[in-house]
Structure formats: C-alpha cells, structure tokens
Amino acid sequence: MHLHPLDLIIIVLYMAGTLGVGWWFSRRQRNIRDYFLSGKDTPWWALMGSIVATETSTVTFISVPAYAFAVNATGTGGDFTFLQIVIGYLVGRLIIVALFIPLYFKGELFTVYQVLDQRFGGRVKRTAASLFLVTRSIADGIRLFLTAIVLVALTGLADPVSILILGIVTIIYTYLGGMAAVIWTDAIQLVIYLIGAVAAAWVLLGKIPGGWNEVVTVGSQLHKFNLFDFTFDLSRNYTFWSGVIGGAFLTTATHGTDQLMVQRYLSARNARQATLALLTSGVVILAQFVLFLMIGVMLYIFYQTAGPLPAEVAARADRVFPHFIVTELPVGLIGLVVAAIFAAAMSTLSGSLNSLSASAVTDFYRPLLAPNKSDRHYLNVSRLLTALWGAVQILVALVAIAMKGRGVDAVLAVASFTNGPILGLFFMSALTRRIGAKGALTGVVVGILAMLFVWLRLSLSWQWYVLVGSLITLGAGYVASLLLERPRQG
Question: What is the pLDDT of residues 369-415, one digit of tens each?
C-alpha cells in the first residue's frame, strides 16, 4: 500500500522525536554510570514503562490477537488460554523479588553477570556473558527481521529497507542517549502503542453490528473467553501447567538473569523502587494482553459478517490484524498504528543494544583489555560498541531474509536454550555455597547439551525448556562439585 501523506508525516514525526530524545540525554553523560545506568536516578514508574515496552515486541502486537482469532496447527488458541502463561509471568516476578533483587543492590553493578563474578570468579561470569552476547544478538536480529515483515505488509517497503530504517534510527538514539534515552523513549513508546491498540480496538468495535453486546454473546457461544486448560500434556503449549509453572521459570530467567531486563533494575534508585517497577509492570502486562486478545476475538466476529478474507491473509492468522489496519482504519490513525508498531519494535531493540554494550565493556573490555582508562575513554568505547552491536543485529536480520520458515524458528529455538542454563547458574549462586567454579562451568555445559537433546529428540513444549534447563544445570553443577571440588566454607 502507499501511505497517505498525513500517515507518513505522523511516522516521520515519531522517528524525529525519538532521535530528539537521544540527543537531549546525550548532553548529560559524563561516564558509563550515566550511559548504562542513567545515573541511578530513574523513577520507578518510568522503569515500569520501560520493562513493559521491552517485554512487548511487534510480534506480540500482531501475534497475540492472532492467538485469540483462530486455533493454530498445534490445536491451541482461539480463546483466552494465552493468559495462563501471563499468570506464570506474575509468579516469576515474585520469585525475582524474593531471590535476586537483593543481590543486585549489594554494591554498584553494571551487569547482572558481575554477581556470578563475585560468587564464582571471572571465568563463570564471562561464560554467562558470552552466551548472552551471542544469543541476544541472534534473537533480536531476527526480531528486527520479523518486524520488517510486518512493516512491509503495512507500507509496501522492501524487507532490507524496513530493516535499515528501524535499525539505523534505533542505533542513533541509543548511541547518543544511552540508558536514559532507552528508558524514557520506552515509556513514550508504551503510551504510543497502547493508544494505537486502543484506537484500533475502538474502530473495530464500532464496525461490529450490535457492538459490545454482540462481542460478548458470540464470543461466549464460541467459547472464545475460555481461560483455563487443565490438560496435562508436556508436549502441549498454553495449558495451565505449562503456562503457570513454565511461564514462572521463563520469566525468572528473562527478567531475573538477562542483562536486557536487569539493567532496568540496576538503574533504579534502590531495591524498593526496582521491586515496585517490576511488580507493577506485571499488572500492566496482564491488562495489555487482555486488550490484545480481545482485539483477536473482535476481529474474528467482524470478519464473520464483513466478507471473506483474502486467501493469503486467511492462511495466516497473524496477518489478519495488519490487514484490518491497512483496509479499515481511517487516514491518520493508520499512521499512528504504524508508528505504534515501530515503537514496539524499537523499545526492545534499543534496550538490547545498550545491554550488549554494557556487558561487552564491563564484563570484557575494561577488566581484560583496559583496566585503568579515563571515564571519557570508556564512554566513547561504549558508544562505539552500541553502534557495532546494532550493525550486527542488522546483519542478522538481513541474513534472516533468506531463512524464512523453519530456519528462523530453529535459530530462535537454539537461542532460547541458554535461558535455562544461565538461570541454573544464578540458582547455584543464590541457593547454595557448596558449588564452586568448576561445578558451575560443568553444569552450564551439561545444561546446554541437555537442552539440545530435548529439542532434537523429545516432543516437549518450549514452555518447559527453562525449567528443565535450569534444574539440569543446577543438578549437574552440584554433582560435579562433589566430584571435583573441596567443600566451600561459609
């Protein structure tokens, strides 16, 4: 499609605004404490907005409505059972508050992996940080590609052009403004994409004959509002058990041990503010997913009477919401929703670039290559590495164009394997003093190999991966320490 000039102006203004935020915060930076931790002076509500925005990608914006729209190939979907994993997200946040937040405020940390350095030494820290650098670059490079697909459908741009626009704008404002720009732009982006989603939902509801009463009546008749599935099947996604238990472990890993998220807490004024930001983000995430699922239900009801969908759209439920946006929304609102999709993508990518740079500088460059340089030197290197990691993610996204289909699924699956083993390392650190460095390294290697076996040989839902990987890593580390190391004192 060709965007109306008004829609194009809205999108351009949004892009210019994000660059302006980066420039504004660049004036306040004196050292890497400012660049990576926003001077540790960010209010909890801004951190909450950043956490929610980072947790929500463009794929979420499009795919969650698709889940409620239709049953997928695995026999799940078409209702509200997706919320079972969101309940797990809330449980995981409570575990993080109880187990990990106190560790992150014992001294000033720049990366979460410094906790492992304090407990096991530099080798274990660098192992975990290396896994983060590799898998985060791959996963977010592919997210950039998946976002480009959506933008291609909405704007008609070529895949490489969409990737470059998103990637370059994100690099520039993150390069300039650091973590402060990331957090405050995330908060703005959260407002933009929620306004876009609510506006689209309002227009959609107005197009359904009978309005809200029709949605409730038809949705209830078709069991669209079913919430719980107590089927106990380890190969099945989005059951109560895989959602609540698996989702809790997944969130404990992604929000408790991944630099992308933990860097937000480290930017808080204190542990209490970090806790408040994390817990309130869970409430907003729950409300947000309810909104997206309701959009999916309304899309289903709307297209029962609005005429058949084009064959290429009907074949893929995740194309229905973009199709509605470009064919049913009025001029101006299309621009807002496209800007919202940009916002959902850029909020994740900007945080990724800053966290990758933080880990590269503080876990590798400063301690190993340049331990006694000036604040200005480290700040310049941090900015340079932000741009470098952005280029890496753009390259991954461009390569992913040729890997459509199962190739992309496979890479994302492999990238997700490290969540469990890294969580296992943090369990070793927090739960026992018996395991030493040799046991920790052995455990993480065994954990990764075990997850490769699970993926290749077992029909296990991905929602169990983190639980299995973390427990195998913890168990293997404990056994290895019994065999290889003397008991630790204390």
Answer: 999 899 899 999 999 999 999 999 999 999 888 776 444 455 555 55
Cα separation of 373 and 388, whole Å?
21
Token digits of residue 244 = 């609540």
pTM of the full structure: 0.89
Token pair listed for 341: 């999709």
- Centroid of chain to Cα 410: 18
> What is the per-residue pLDDT across 257-283, written as a single tens digit (0 to 9) for each?
999 999 999 999 999 999 999 999 999
Report residue 148 CA to chain centroid gap: 17
* Domain range list for the chain: 5-402, 417-490
CA atoms within 13 A on the CB side of 430: 18
What secondary structure letter does DSSP report for 77? Answer: B
Distant-in-sequence, close-in-space partners of 28: CB < 8 Å, separation ≥ 6: 34, 39, 180
Residue 484 has φ and ψ, to the nearest 5°, of -110, -20
CATH of region 5-402, choose from 1.20.1730.10, 2.120.10.90, 3.30.930.10, 1.10.10.10 = 1.20.1730.10
DSSP reduced 3-state for 71: strand
User: Residue 89: how many CB atoms within 10 A of its CB?
Assistant: 24
Of 227, 215, 221, residue with least CA distance to 297 = 215
d(CA 279, CA 93): 6
Task: Give the whole-angstrom CA distance, residue 433 versus residue 421.
Answer: 18
In whole angstroms, what is the distance from residue 323 CA to residue 60 CA?
16
Length of the chain: 490
How many Å apart are CA 478 and CA 393, to the nearest integer?
36
Determine the Cα–Cα distance for residues 19 and 14; give it in Å rounded to an integer. 9
Place of tokens 């933009």: 192
| Contacts for 449 with CB less than 8 Å, ≥ 6 apart | none
